[in-house]
Records
---
Amino acid sequence: MSSEQLNDEIDLIELTEFLWDWKWLIAAITACFSVLSVGIALLLPASFEGSLRITALTKQQMAAYQTLNNTPGISTPIYAGEVLIGQTGVVLSTEMFAAFGNKIRQGRIFGVAHQSLDPAVKNFDGTTEELTQELAKIGQSYSFTLDKGSKGSGILSFETDDRELALAIVEMALSSATDEIRTDNLAAIAALSRSIATSLNFEMDLVTTEIDNALADYEVRTAAYRAQLKEQAAIARQLGNANGAAIASINSGINVAVEQEQPLYIRGYKALEKEIDLIDARGNGAAAYPFVTDYAELASRKRALESDKRLEHLDTGLTETQLTDTDRFEAANYDLETMVFEATTSKSLIVILSTLMGGLIAVIFVLLRSALSARKNQSPN
C-alpha cells in the first residue's frame, strides 16, 4: 500500500470520526428539514390525473335505428353486386362517436360545467372577457385521445385537485354533449323530412302540370281534328258519298294511280260522322285521360309520388329510437364508475427527498464550520 493510499484511508477514518462527533447536530438539522417537509407535504393540495374510456355504440345498441336507417332514398344506398340491400343511414355510431370526441376537444362543455359547479370559477373575480378566457383555458385542459388504430375508442384525460368535483363536472359535461348530439340528430332528421316533403311537392306539381298540359294539348288537337272531320263529312254528303264506294269506283274507272294521301271525304260521310260520334263519346277532362299521349307514363309517376312512404317511415323509425327520449339516448359508451384517478404528486417522496437533502446540508454545514474553526486557530494572534 502506498503512502498516498494510506493517507486517503486515514483521512476517511478521521472524517467519519469527525462527523460522528457532530452526529447530534447533523441529526437535529436533518430532523428540522424532515419536519419542515412533512408540514409542506400536508399543506400541498392533492393532485390527480383522471382518465375515462369512451367507446362507440355497438351494433346491438344501433339495432334500434335500423328501421330509420333502412328507409329507402334517405341516404347513400348499399349494394351487394347489383342488388340493393339497404342504406348507409342517417344516424350512425361512428358519426356520433366522432361528434362526441369533437365536443370534448372543443372544451366548451367543460367550461360550462366548471362555471356551474366549481366554486373557484363561480366566484371568479374578473371581467367578462377574463372569465371567458379562463373558461377557454379550463376547457383546453381536457383532452381526448383515440386509441392507436381505432376510430371508435379513446381516453378522456384531465388533471384535478378534487376527485369528487371532477367526477361531477365530467358527468355534467358528457351529459351536455350527449344531449347536444341528440338535438343535432333530431334537427338533421327534421331537415331531411322537410327536404323530402319539398321534393315530393315539387315533383307532384311538376307531373300534375305535365298531365294538365298533355290534356290541354289533346283537347286542342282533338277539337281541330273533329272540325276537320265535320268539314270532310259535309263534303262527302254534297258528293253523295255515304260509304266511300262511289268515289272509289270513279277512281277505279279512270284507272288513275293516286300517289298522294287521299282527302278524308273519300271515306264517306257515314264513317266520318261515326268517328265524330266516337270522339264526342270520349267525354272531357279526366274521362279523356286514356286517350292522352304519354298519360300512362305520367300517371305512373304520379302514383309513385302519391305512394311514397319515406316520410311515414321516418316518423315510424324515429319513434322506435332513443332520440325522442332524453333519459335513454346515448351517443357513446362510458361508465363514470370506471373513471381512474392517479396521484401525480407523491407526498412521501417529498419527505424522503427533503430529509436526504437536510442530511446533506447538515454534513456540509458541519464540515464548513470545522474548516473555518481550524483556519481561525492557525491564523497568528
---
Amino acid sequence: PLELNIEMTRRFVERMRGRVLVEGAVAEIAQAVEHADDPLTTPEDAERFYNETGVFLIVPDLGTEHRATAVAARYDGERARAITARIGRKSVLHGSSSLPDGDLPRLAADGIVKVNVWTIFERLGGQAVARHILDELAHILPLEERRALVEQGVLGSRMLDDGDSSPQLDSLREERRRDVWQAAVVARMKFYLEQYNYANWRAPY
C-alpha cells in the first residue's frame, strides 16, 4: 500500500542520508501478465511519494514491465510529463527493455533521467549464441547425434554435409560463446547510448 511504502521508504532514506542517493519505487513494476489491469502512477501519488519520502529519484509505473513478456509496452509519455510537471526531472524508467525502439529518443523530453534495461540484453545475447551454436553444430556434435536429430525432424539434412568430422575444440570453448554474447550485447548498448544522445560515450573511460 502507498502509505506503508512511503513510511518504509522514508525510514530508509533517513538511515542512508549522506551515504547514498536513494531511488524509490512509487509502485511495483511487474510483468504484464501479473498486472494487466493495474492503474499507472498518478501525478498526485508521485508528488506525494517524492515529497514525503525524501528520495532523490522516483520510479513511477508508466506502463513498462519487467521481463518484457508483453507484445508491446503501453508506455505513457503523457503521464510521465504530468509527473515531471509536479516534481521536475526526477523519474526513472524500469522495464525499459519492453519499450519499442521508437519510444527511446523521447524519454528525456518526458522527464526520464535514468533507464533500467537488462532483459533485452539477455534476449539478444542468447539469440546470438543460439545462432552461433547452430552454425557450428557440425563441429560440436558427432555425426551419429546429428543424424539422430535429422531423423527426429529437429535438424535439416544440411547438418550431415560435413560428414564424420570429430568435434573441434575451438567450437566447444566457452569463450567463443561468451564473445558472441558480448558482441550482441555491446552492439545494443551502443544503440541505446546513441538513442539517448550520449554524445561523449566514446570517450576512453
